[in-house]
Amino acid sequence: FRHRPALTSVIIPNSVKNIGDAAFFGSALTSVVIPNSVEIIGNGAFNDCSELTSVVISNSVKSIGNAAFYDCVGLDSISVPSSVTDIGSNAFKNVKNVYYSGDATGRPWGALYINAYIDEYGFLYANDQKEQVVGYVGNATDICIPSSVTSINDNAFKNNSKLTSITIPNSVDFIGDYAFYNCQGLISVTIPKSVEKIGWCAFQNCCNVTIYCEVSSEPNGWSNGWNYENWPVVWGYNTSISESTTNINIYAHGNTIVIENATDDIWVYDAMGRLVVETPQCDVSTEIHINTAGIYIVKVGSTAKRVMINE
């Protein structure tokens, strides 16, 4: 069934003892149950099954091959029974967390963490101190990271399509590589002034996000965090989401962007983050005509807002 993009479900019968190499490589399976008859999961058996979100492995399984679940990026967590005594290299590459109490060698086999701590809200932590967020398996769209957290680790929220907004507490000083990569539903993030480092491509492919940054100077790694042009990243120092709409009124009217009470220069960016319009300082209000429908980011001084042009 290799590279069968139409294959979204499968029932493996109890007569099966061996799931062969690359058996479901690149398929669109969303969940799979390995029955009690299976003893071997072959090399690359579920490699690149990016839609896979749930896997149940029975206690009959003794061996999991190399790259068996490699790049199953939808798997936040997988439980491996202690009956498994042989786990191949990179068997769980890019899986956030593996629960396993057996004695197979080579851990973490490409996974980000082994036996991470999970709280009642769905946050995965490196340990029960709850200082390092390593993943999220909850279903909330608007989340607030607990104040015990000091770092958001690499890939923590990668490919989370449900997330629309996130609140980062002042306790956080580090945001890791690809932390919010491909969170395409993400609309707004406020980065507190406590953050000292932002990792490589932390917000890449977050095409609809507006980032409000409270830091007074650029954190280490800032430029590495958004060195691509496929997102509209706009930030204002010493600002916050609540302050961003207090005095200045920004809205779309047909194919016109209206800015009221502006007292600073105005910049308009398209959905690719490219500068479209720059105007000098105006004292009261201004109107900017846009020829192409789409999402635009309007920045006035330290205020930024996203608007939609429909005509």
Overview of the molecule:
The chain is mainly β and 311 residues long. The chain has two helices and 26 strands. The radius of gyration is 23 Å and the shape is elongated. The strands form seven sheets. The protein has a six-stranded mixed beta sheet with strand order 10-11-12-14-16-18. Helices cover 3% and strands 30% of the residues. Residues 223-246 have low confidence and may be disordered.
Looking at this protein, list some descriptive labels.
311 residues, mainly beta, six-stranded mixed β-sheet, four-stranded parallel β-sheet, 26 strands, elongated
Q: Helix proportion of residues, in percent?
A: under 10%
Strand content: 25-35%
Q: What is the number of helical segments per DSSP (H or I, 4+ residues)?
A: 2
Spell out the helices and strands N to C: EEEEEEEEEEEEEEEEEEEHHEEEEEEE
The low-confidence runs, each spanning 5 or more residues with pLDDT under 50, are 223-246
Task: Please state the overall shape, judged from the principal axes of the Cα atoms.
Answer: elongated
Please, what is the average pLDDT? 81
Rg from C-alpha positions? 23 Å
Strand order of the largest sheet: 10-11-12-14-16-18
Secondary structure: elements and pairs:
Elements: E1 18-19, E2 31-34, E3 40-41, E4 54-57, E5 63-64, E6 77-80, E7 86-87, E8 97-100, E9 113-114, E10 117-118, E11 123-125, E12 132-136, E13 142-144, E14 151-152, E15 165-167, E16 174-175, E17 188-191, E18 197-198, E19 210-213, H1 222-225, H2 241-244, E20 249-253, E21 256-260, E22 266-269, E23 275-279, E24 285-289, E25 294-300, E26 303-309
Parallel strand pairs: 1-3, 2-4, 3-5, 5-7, 6-8, 8-9, 12-14, 13-15, 14-16, 15-17, 16-18, 17-19
Antiparallel strand pairs: 10-11, 11-12, 20-21, 21-24, 22-23, 22-25, 25-26
